[in-house]
Amino acid sequence: MLAESTLIKEARKALEASIVYYQGKPIGTVAACDPEVEALNYDQCFVRDFVSSGLFFLIEGKPDIVRNFLIEVLGLQSQEKRLDCFEPGQGLKPASFKVVSRGDEEYLLADFGEQAIARVAPIDSCFWWLILLRAYVKATGDLELAQGADFQHGIHLILKLCLESRFDMFPTLLVPDGSFMIDRRMGVYGYPLEIQALFHAALRAAEELLLPGDPGDMYLQAVQTRLSHLTYHVRSYYWLDLQRLNEIYRYRGEEFGEAAINKFNVYPDTIPPWLTDWLPDTGGYLAGNVGPGQIDFRFFGQGNLLAIATCLATPQQAQAIMDLIAQRWQDLVGHMPFKICYPAVEGQDWRTITGSDPKNIPWSYHNGGNWPVLLWSLAVAALKTDRPELLQGALEVAEKRLLIDQWAEYYDGRNGRLVGKEARKFQTWTIAGYLLAKALQENPNHLSLICFDEDPGVAPCR
Ligand code: GLC
Question: pTM for the full model?
């Protein structure tokens, strides 16, 4: 149990108040309980948001809510999810759901994206569900739940959906814009890093949870093959450090065939001017996106931190990412850990990339805002790489503001100095993210719930 401070006491109280009940049982937490603004869809339980609360509940010895959540979300996959007449693939998990009461009757209503702003597909939900299922099994030893026929079928559907052969040349997963935490148009379509990190973690979770036999063995083989290709690809082609930047700078274009060095035909002119100064001598990171003729050089917080947690990054790359964070502290931690994406897109780029989105103006929200929920991923990455001083520093920064700002959803400005223009207060994943970071700091053994060891079956990188 965490030592009580005022901050922790208040956080626990706020987390408790966010719990959603269905037929008398706790099944999740709402996104936010801000008494001052209209709830919109923040009164729903978002799958990605619940992971922070769920992991904390597991550590606190309250696994029932996580179990109920996993069962209910699995059940929701059969709900109709149509956009006009089109029905997306089975295995997709909802972005969020809510409890609806009609008279004495209660039922769950899911949103698979068909009700969301811009109808974005919540691709990350099925990965988070699998990651949380594996954490639940690790925390409780209750393998029976995951090995039940309905759960195995649920895992098969997810794998079918993402391992199916498509029109593709890469082992990374091709997705539309806004399909994860960044759920608005932000130029994160194609092969965005966060999706690849979640895909990788989910495959590793499936590897542990699949029952042997038929068809489990068939899926297991497909999972292992894809894991090895995906890991190699991300480690080799997403990595950016000074040496790699020098290579790209001197790239030649228009190379044909197997021997091509510049495999994706990236032109040196696409290197953004900020990067040459920003990249430290020691340190590096995984690029935001890699595709034909394209490297998105922006630094995305969640993808890099998760890549450390799950060993998608090599141990050397993991250390280098933490070196970068230490040396670019003001840019990435600033007044509130942690930057969702650095730097912001501005001017004509902002118009083209976001579609002139007023919520994603430069240095706000997804476009360069600071998100306290990322504190727990930062905690995992810092502890896993044995850099506890970085976690301690980030917690000290966050603790100055969290309670005063009433657990704001996100912060604006180059260094995250302003509470986000449209940020909710009492945002649950801000609260749970803080509690989880503290709990991990107090007992790093809990890292095993979310971390994976180096996969021996994988070639390191180029
Ligand atoms: C916003 C965020 C999304 C989050 C949701 C609920 O839509 O962009 O990542 O899941 O709010 O907090």
Answer: 0.98
